[in-house]
Amino acid sequence: MFLKTILFTTVFTLVVVVVGAFVRLTNAGLGCPDWPGCYGQLTPTQAARDIAKAVAEQGGTHGPVSLQKAWHEMVHRYLAGMLGLLILGITIAAWVKRQQQSPWLPTGLLALVTFQAALGMWTVTMLLRPVIVTLHLMGGMATLALLTWLSARQLALSQAFPAPANHTLKPWAALGLALLVAQIALGGWVSTNYAALACIDLPKCHGEWLPKMDFQHGFQILRELGQTAAGAKLSYDALTAIHWTHRMGAVVVTLYLAWLAWQTARVAGMRGVAVAVAVLLAAQVTLGASNILTGLNLTVAVAHNAGAALLLAALVVLNFALFRESTIKS
């Protein structure tokens, strides 16, 4: 039951991450301007009068507030709350079973998801400040990664996880995971700054390999959405710099992970993981290009977020397999 609960929670975390991407991409992050309720109510239906008033004040449903967007936001909060309870249950069970295995990973997960709740609150109360929203995204990805590692550990303890023949790829797999995490963070920065369509042509940007860009303001961390740290409007050149950097990161990560998958396939017992990494990588590249070619179609954009999460999980499994001996001993 402990193993099944962890596996279910891992899959459920993926759902929460994807729903969070859907909320962000439908501009519903401020659908309920307070936290944890919606206009002080448990559901948007109970807050319908306040929502209707806010819609009238913003001049229609084209803004961040509408009953539909409020439901998008609250469903995400309900799911996140359920995830927190699941992780709390796993942590309690891990301490009960502490004589059999270390409970510290589940405890760290509980601390992380608690911090995630705080980031979710600040996302709303700080009006979608990019650094907060990006950290919230990365927190969700980190939760998925740790649960994937925990799932792999439980499967290994139950002898349902194959061990590789050697561990020579350890540093290269760790580097691949680090590069992917950096690329996901860049993708989050693109999304939270609404820079996904700053370049609408491929493979060039504005018809140039090196378009005019403003890295200084594009990568200022402590600033409001759409503004520089000084309060001026964020320029299109700054958005271009954000988008272009993510593209270049995609090239580096794609080439490296393709090489890593090829090397991994040559290790006994690792062909399945290698194929998963290769397939997910190809899907991500296709979805990334499709985002631009379709003008950021919602389904494609959400799928791109889901693909990043799945690729992260695959890299975590790869690293666990290579580091399995020391992990099980600890």
Characterization of the model:
- It is a single chain.
- This protein has two domains: 1-161, no CATH class; 163-330, no CATH class.
- By secondary structure, the protein is mainly alpha-helical.
- The radius of gyration is 21 Å and the shape is globular.
- It has eleven helices and no strands.
- The longest helix is centred in the first third of the chain and has 30 residues, at 67-96.
Keyphrases for this structure?
mainly alpha; 0% strand
In short:
It contains eleven helices and no strands. The chain is mainly alpha-helical and 330 residues long. It starts with a helix and ends with a helix.
Low-confidence stretches: none
- Helix tally equals 11
Describe the sheet with the most strands: none
User: Which range does the strand content fall in?
Assistant: under 5%
Tell me the number of structural domains: 2
Oligomer category: single chain
Q: SSE string, helix = H, strand = E?
A: HHHHHHHHHHH
Task: Determine the fraction of residues in helical runs and give it as a percent range.
Answer: 55-70%
> First CA to last CA: what distance?
22 Å
Q: Classify the secondary structure makeup into a structural class.
A: mainly alpha
Layout of strands and helices, then pairs:
Layout: H1 2-25, H2 48-58, H3 67-96, H4 104-125, H5 130-157, H6 170-192, H7 215-218, H8 236-265, H9 271-293, H10 298-322, H11 324-329
Helix pairs in contact: 1-3, 1-5, 1-10, 3-4, 4-5, 5-6, 5-10, 6-8, 6-10, 8-9, 9-10
